[in-house]
Amino acid sequence: MKLKIFKYILMSLLILFCLQLLPHSSTAQYWTALPPYNVLWPLWSPALSPVSPTTGLPTPLLTSLTSNTLLPVQPSLVWDPSFSYYYLLYNSFPAPGVTQVKYYDPLNAGLLNPFSDWPPSNLLTGTPPVPNPLTLPLNYASLLSFDPSLWLNNWVPISNLVWQNLYGINPNLLAATALYPPNYVYTATYLPATTTTVAVPVPGGGGIPVI
To answer: Which of 26, 64, 114, 133 is the most buried (most CB within 10 A)?
Structure first.
């Protein structure tokens, strides 16, 4: 009898230990990594990762990102977490039936044409070049970047305007406000450890706070 009780207690402790190793659903998931370069696609943007009516979870519109991916939304957005800014992505069509992804890099953009062919050089290696995927931290999905709405409001209008002037295609580019949730509270942690909470309401907005 005592042996059975001991085995029961031991089994219960083992189950509790295993449960602790499982990912907790309460951990916020802000990003998903896209092969083959492991750049991060935002789950916090309903325009880029709409909420599934079945699961209630954000579902990314893309599952991979290559040089000729047809983007479902323009501009799209990806993040290399070693940088303090995002890449904004657009499609050009250099020839019939040919799709090219171009990206806007706000800090390293050229003056005459600030758009470059995807991917950036740091995501390639060797000759001929092959993908050099980012090495991501284990907690990459829950990383907090800078305030996305502030960055988008600063850069998306400029990027869209320059894109239209240079390429004159896709007049239905999304505005900055379409890329982030209508209402959310954003908490960003900077070094040294200082936490800032910024409330970003949008008049008439709804939606769910996801960041």
So the answer is: 114
> What would the pLDDT profile of 168-186 be if each residue is shown by its tens digit?
877 789 999 899 865 544 4
Question: What is the C-alpha to C-alpha distance for residues 157 and 184, in angstroms, rounded to an integer?
Answer: 21
6, amino acid identity: F
Q: 3-state DSSP call for residue 179?
A: coil
Asked if 54 and 44 touch (Cβ cutoff 8 Å), the reply is no
Are the CB atoms for 115 and 165 separated by under 8 Å?
no
- The structure tokens listed for 40 are 């991060």
Query: How many Å apart are CA 87 and CA 102, to the nearest integer?
Result: 10
For the stretch 102-117, pLDDT in tens is 999 888 766 667 899 9
What would the DSSP string read from start to end of 92-158?
EEEETTEEEEEEE-TTT--SS--EEESSPGGGEETTTTEE------TTGGG---S-HHHHHHHHHHH
Domain ranges of the chain: 29-182
Identify how many contiguous H helices and E strands the chain contains and give both numbers.
2, 10
* Residues counted in the chain: 211
Please report how many Cα atoms fall inside a 13 Å half-sphere around the Cα of residue 117, on the Cβ side.
7
